Task: structure prediction
Amino acid sequence: MLNSKRFCSFGSLAKRVLYLAVFLGFGAVFASQNIDSLFVVSNHQNITVLKINEDFDSIAVSKTRTSYLLRFYAQGVEMAELDLNTALDSLVFYNSIEGVSIDERDGREYAWKNINGQKWMTENLKYLPEIFPYNSFEEEKKEYFVYDFENDSLALALEDSLYLVHGALYNWAAALEACPEGWVLPSAENWDDFYEYVETMGKPKEVIGDSIWGEGAEDLLGFGFYPAGINSGNYFQDINDISIFWSATEGESYGARALSLREHYGELYDFDKYNGFSVRCLKK
Result:
């Protein structure tokens, strides 16, 4: 799904150049509205779809003896060229509402959704290159856990029923680098903005609630929240009650910041970095 914004339909050559000048001057506005793609249209048909900052990162208009050319560049290399006289009659910018992203490391597909202007994965991350015991208390080394799983077999961990539903748990070192290419671990500010948005509509149970919380639980945002529990370093605990999501932000007094979500409230706290918490990824 997508929201589209027709930037302009070109008329005379003078209008074309004027519109493109306006477009180039409003690049920051498009970025602030999370517009991520561009339809290049001719004769009322889609010619091509270009992803902003993937297929191109800048546009220039140049003049020849007979025409004006619209040139698309990526990292300083020209990727495409269009004649404003003959090859282009409109540009349509759009912002995708939801979609699916593939993690090239293991082939897993993750649904994502635009929530309050940010593209969030709608399930917990499952990237699991290794498996570790729950009680190692390691802060510097990357460690990965599966709730209630105490075997050292990665193959068995990848088939574990709780892992398949709730995803993996990560210490902070692992969480920082766990998200696939093109995605990042949210900052504390990202999580704060997200939870403030949830609060405008009600308590977590009423807005992003999982059915395990019983009557009245509803996921209005399509966030796909699961109370996946945690690894506290001493034992696994609180599944079906709580999820804690790492942020990429260092703690204010110690450790690192993470969002704790329960049925009736959520809050950002400092936690020791050895804890095993869930990860949700945010589109860059």
Notes: Residues 100-283 form one domain. The longest helix spans residues 13-25. The mean pLDDT is 85. The CA atoms of residues 7 and 23 lie 8 Å apart.
